[in-house]
Design a protein that fits this description.
There is one protein chain. The chain is an alpha+beta fold and about 55 residues long. Strand 2 and strand 3 form a beta hairpin. The N and C termini lie close together (about 10 Å). It has one domain: Cytidine Deaminase, domain 2, CATH 3.40.140. It contains one helix and three strands, in the order E-H-E-E.
């Protein structure tokens, strides 16, 4: 599973809420034997990958 959402504000850094939600979804997915491979935040010009940053 790959989670994706946008930040219309153009801020690439994940908020604390983004981090908490990612952890909750990943934990819930494990129960169903599903792996969260990444969570990507994108703006008009760039993206942020939780996997690339070592958060997943």
């Amino acid at each position: 599973m790959i989670l994706i959402h946008n930040h219309p504000s153009a801020t690439l850094q994940p908020s604390q809420a983004d981090k908490v939600l990612t952890t909750k979804i990943a934990d819930a997915a494990k129960i169903m034997d599903i792996k969260v491979n990444d969570h990507i935040i994108f703006t008009d010009t760039a993206f942020y990958s939780f996997r690339d940053e070592g958060l997943i």
